[in-house]
Amino acid sequence: MSEPTSAQTIIVIGASSFIAQAFIEQACHQHAKQQQPNSPVAEPLQIITVSRQASIKLPVLTDSELAGRINHQHFRCDYQQASIEQCVSDIAKIAGTVTRIVMCNGILHSKNQHISTNEPGLMPEKRIEDIDAHSLEQLFYANSIVPMLWLSALTPLLSQPRHKVSAEQKCVISILSARVGSISDNRLGGWYGYRASKAALNMLIKTTAVEYARRLKRVKLIAFHPGTTDTPLSKPFQANVPQGKLFTPAFVASQLQQIMDNSEPDGEASYLDWQGEPINW
Ligand SMILES: NC(=O)c1ccc[n+]([C@@H]2O[C@H](COP(=O)([O-])OP(=O)(O)OC[C@H]3O[C@@H](n4cnc5c(N)ncnc54)[C@H](OP(=O)(O)O)[C@@H]3O)[C@@H](O)[C@H]2O)c1
């Protein structure tokens, strides 16, 4: 286990996500741009990744000096509550001041039969008869419960003097939601479980923001809709996406970076799309 650092820390949860990977790459390059080449006093950046995967690779940085100023630690997690709590306890031992958190967890479908239960894979419901209890449980667990367990476990860490941002700094937490989670925007119907689990996620984020307005005033919460992005999650549904509306993860990650940079803690959660435009809850 590494020693604690005084670096600014970015935590990326669900780091195997294509959007997460692109976000990490952008964060590394943005940090590179901000540094004076060969400056010995350059601020280090700490990137902490969490995933079900055993390892996550950071992009190769061309400047070997710069690579030394990015410090990466990875934690494997199965997203059960005990595992999340253990991860946060391990993160607390090594993290610096936490200024950014991105949570990318989400499922829409799974093709594979469940190994132990032989349950069929899940697909979004087209009609009400497609409702299936096990699929709903999986969707709510991955899309609503996992991000909330992380928020719950991370809140004490974000309050600790060693990790807490100062009054001049901010910590921005973006949680990947989806426009289909908007209750007021639901005109098409369908996708019951995915919609409802993202709507539940939005409510959990909004409720957390009410508490943060009292307890963590310098923390901003964002429920982020990336737009349809070319990742495994959207793959089976890309055929009807209008030309120019299927975004690359790199584009979405760059939009998210800018949105996080420009967001200020205001005591409220924001529900924003990839353009930074608010979505009605
Ligand atoms: N792609 C789109 O068009 C689109 C549109 C709207 C919203 N979104 C949202 O964007 C987020 C990122 O998705 P993506 O498009 O980058 O998809 P992706 O590449 O398929 O990534 C899937 C993500 O979900 C996590 N995950 C997979 N199975 C899980 C499970 N059973 N429990 C908990 N986490 C699980 C993965 O975490 P590990 O690192 O642990 O594997 C990874 O972070 C999701 O929340 C998604 O709902 C995507």
Describe the structure.
There is one protein chain. The protein is of the alpha/beta class and 281 residues long. The chain has six helices and seven strands, in the order βαβαβαβαβαβαβ. It has helices at 18-34, 64-67, 81-94, 133-159, 192-215, 249-262; strands spanning 8-13, 45-51, 70-76, 97-103, 171-176, 219-225, 270-273. The chain has a seven-stranded parallel sheet, with helices on both faces. Bound molecules: NADP nicotinamide-adenine-dinucleotide phosphate. NADP nicotinamide-adenine-dinucleotide phosphate (NAP) binds next to α1 and α4. InterPro entries: Fungal_SecMetab_SDRs, NAD(P)-bd_dom_sf, SDR_fam.
Compute the average pLDDT. 91
CATH superfamily: NAD(P)-binding Rossmann-like Domain
Question: Can you list the ligands bound to this structure?
Answer: NADP nicotinamide-adenine-dinucleotide phosphate
Beta-strand portion reads 15-25%
**How many distinct beta strands?**
7
Could you tell me the CATH topology label. Rossmann fold
Strand order of the largest sheet: 3-2-1-4-5-6-7
Specify the helix fraction band: 25-40%
The termini sit apart by: 42 Å
Structural category: alpha/beta
Protein name: Short-chain dehydrogenase
InterPro entries: Fungal_SecMetab_SDRs, NAD(P)-bd_dom_sf, SDR_fam
Pfam families: adh_short (PF00106)
Features:
alpha/beta; 7 strands; binds NADP nicotinamide-adenine-dinucleotide phosphate; Fungal_SecMetab_SDRs; Short-chain dehydrogenase; SDR_fam; NAD(P)-bd_dom_sf
